[in-house]
Each structure stands twice: as C-alpha cells, then as structure tokens.
Amino acid sequence: xxxxxxxxxxxxxxxxxxxPKCANPTCPKAFDWFRNGKFFRFSDDSASNHHGVHHYWLxxxxxxxxxxxxxxxxxxxxxxxxxxxx
Length: 86
Prior knowledge:
This protein has about 90 residues and is mainly β. The chain contains 1 helix and 4 strands.
C-alpha cells in the first residue's frame, strides 16, 4: 500500500536552457549560487553528454517537499518520505 502519491515529472538539469532554474518543472525559482537548496548529480551513460554527468538543483522550498531519483535515462521528481512519528 502506498501512502504518498508519486509525482512523475521529468526534472530539468541546471544547465538546461539559457536561464537555469529549480529542477521542479512547476517551480519558477531561478538558480543562484548564493541561495540554499540541494544539488544532485546523476551519471549519464549516453554519448550525448561529453562528461557523462548532469547536475540538478532543487530550490530550498522544493527540496523540503521533493527529492530527485534516476529512472533509466530520466531523472524524476518524487515526494520526500515523511519522517516516522515516534
């Protein structure tokens, strides 16, 4: 039984487009070196990326609610697991 609904949304790498932003496709927060948040690094075995690594960033707000996971050749946005209550 699943208790959390999974968000299946392809995330955007930091170097995607001219204006890097949060990897959450619905979040408009622009990337800024001085902002908090969480960086992710995923290997890419395809020949399209010359160094084989893609970098992703979730802004501080999104990083509290979501995480990123690799699914084959895609990186997807998933809800963070809620902490268990003791």
